[in-house]
Write a structure and sequence with these properties.
8 strands, 3 helices, about 30% strand, alpha+beta, two-stranded antiparallel sheet, 60s Ribosomal Protein L30, Chain: A
């Protein structure tokens, strides 16, 4: 018999409004929704893509921790970057957060994010057998 799906909330402002969970635990997988540098409803580190990336991954890793997983369990990341000029610093922040974990990763340059002060949004998928 398979384990039930478990949903994790961070209490973020858009979860209830848009009808989603911060993370979903499905068997050995934990799938974390898009995370930005929004903390307590306020965008942090305005104009600093590096710090926004670190903060966004921190939000994602907090959700993973609620499921009992950590950075070493991350198998895939996605980074959505508003400005191509920020890709190097976003990549450097990714390297800092994940070091030797080296998950599969995708980085896309996109047109806009929900709030114009946001420079990056990240997603994380983790796996624990």
């Amino acid at each position: 018999m398979s384990a039930p799906v478990r949903r994790i909330s961070s209490g973020g402002p858009w979860e209830d409004a848009f009808g989603y969970s911060r993370a979903v635990v499905a068997g050995p997988f934990v799938l974390v929704s898009g995370c930005t540098a929004t903390v307590d409803g306020e965008v942090q580190h305005i104009g600093d893509a590096y710090e926004q990336t670190r903060t966004a991954f921190g939000v994602a890793l907090d959700a993973l921790a609620q499921a009992g997983l950590g950075p070493a369990d991350v198998v895939r990341t996605r980074m959505y970057v508003k400005h191509a000029v920020d890709t190097e610093t976003v990549g450097a922040a990714h390297r800092e957060v994940f070091g030797e974990v080296r998950p599969a990763a995708t980085m896309l340059v996109i047109g806009a994010l929900l709030d114009p002060r946001m420079l990056v949004e990240v997603e994380v998928d983790a796996y624990r057998p």
